[in-house]
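Input for the complex:
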Amino acid sequence: MTGQNVDRDRFWMAQALALARRAFDEGEVPVGAVIVREDVCIAEAYNLREHSRSPIAHAEMLAIQEASKTIGNWRFTDTTLYVTLEPCAMCAGAIVLARIPKVVYAANDPKAGAAGTLYNILQDERLNHRVEIVSGVFADESSALLKSFFQQRRRPPDK
Amino acid sequence: MTGQNVDRDRFWMAQALALARRAFDEGEVPVGAVIVREDVCIAEAYNLREHSRSPIAHAEMLAIQEASKTIGNWRFTDTTLYVTLEPCAMCAGAIVLARIPKVVYAANDPKAGAAGTLYNILQDERLNHRVEIVSGVFADESSALLKSFFQQRRRPPDK
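Predicted:
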């Protein structure tokens, strides 16, 4: 990975982290996501499960929904998705279906991660699309935010 | 499984198949889904990936989105989801997140099935919810419809 890519990944992950902080402030599990195409943000979202009362309102899904309106196609060519927590099975499946070429995530999710932890749906040779993965960008910051949220709530993490 | 349950499953799968046929007529990969609570249909949907230009517009996801409005909670207690094709990783992940207790599906999906074929996300002990699975209800009818669709399109199946 070149220095320019590292800078770019940190730049966009900082935006995703800012969105995660907005989720935190609204009482939602703090996860944020942005989708970038040719250095332009085409979608941004944060987890809204409680407010929307929808089990599928994860940051990645809302960002994919928004981006599909901009792209006008279900194939997300030349895009990168940045997310502050390792995608779950639902979100990883959606990323493969959208043919997103690259995912950058911050913290691993030991309970539900599907980009290498419990599964690696993003790089399964049996599926019809493989995703480049970069992990660990601002992992400590994302983990600290999640930890702080669950300490405040005094309930087990259940994204 | 009791005879009454078999009859119930066939009744609701027939509704899901009717929705799959509507998808077929609209040029969409023919998959239909219904969500039932206490013998009442609370959501019905069919695959709309092409028309909605969204990679996540699978029948199950659209049904879950609709049901969440009726239920008003992200926990889908006492529901059964009927779908004409084995759920993919995205949809299986969503079913677990929604805590749906039971899934009945018709045909297996050898390319992307995540309810026993490539993965069994619905019954993974590491996740925080396990789903009862019934499969094979009107499997031949669903397979024939899918086969007919792809023969007409002359392209490889790519839900």
